[in-house]
Amino acid sequence: MSLLSFKSVSKTVRDGTQDIAVLADVSFEVDPGDYVGLWGRRRSGKSTTLRLAAGIERPDSGTIIFDGKDIAKMSDDERALQRRRGGIALALLDWTPKGSRPVVEHVALAFACNRHVSFGEAEVAARRTLKRVGAAEVEYEKTGSLKLSERVRVELARALVCEPRLLLVDEPAMLASPSASRELYELLRTLGRDKSLAVVIASQEAHAIEGAPRVFSISDGRVRTTDSRRKVLQFPRASAENRGA
To answer: For position 66, what pLDDT does the model report?
Structure first.
């Protein structure tokens, strides 16, 4: 059975006096342990797709099934609980610290709040996860002093610390350094080889999803699959610049 399933999902947003179709009759499935790339230009609908999958937003029509349950029909509280304990994590890698606390505490708080365990147990989980993403050396650094590449790894650790079954990564192609980007992409590919975790990466940078066995492209709110050679389909000529994000 699929872990995540979009069935005829549509979403519109209000822009002034008109409704803009962000997603139009989108259907796809993600199986347990899948590693999936979603490639689209800015404002193509890829970020909205991830927010819908995470239960942060509701679709206007269609169903979104996660682990056999229609999250589109859940209440706000039920969807929040699903994200915390049901196995969905959304990593927004453009995270900027609003305060400054030790990294291990920042990651441990996510675990302690969601699992209701002692802070000591949460710190153990945080250190284990920071090591998993290659950020163990910054565990005692303050979040406000982290470099961009370090913040990205810490945010991944915070998303992974509760051991989700589905990791949604929005736009990892944001690092200024090519070498830091390559290291991040390799880390994501490593996570994608973990059969207990399904990973969906949305990016406008093809290198970010290189190596994904399954790749979709999204344009004008519609999803297109890969061809038989697993090459990413080229975007149609129609511009998506005026579509919603």
So the answer is: 93
DSSP letter string over 72-120? GGS-HHHHHHHHHHSSEEEEETT---SS--BHHHHHHHHHHHHH---HH
Strands (E), the chain: 4-15, 18-30, 35-40, 61-66, 69-70, 88-92, 166-170, 198-203, 214-219, 222-225
Q: Residue 179 CA to chain centroid, in angstroms?
A: 22
Token pair belonging to 65: 């099934």
**C-alpha 28, offset from chain centre:** 16
Distance CA 219, CA 239 (A): 8
Tell me the C-alpha distance between 236 and 137, whole Å: 44
pTM score, two decimals?
A: 0.86
Averaged pLDDT for residues 128-155: 93
- The angle formed by the CA atoms of residues 231, 91 and 86, to the nearest 5 degrees, is 100
pLDDT at position 76, please?
85
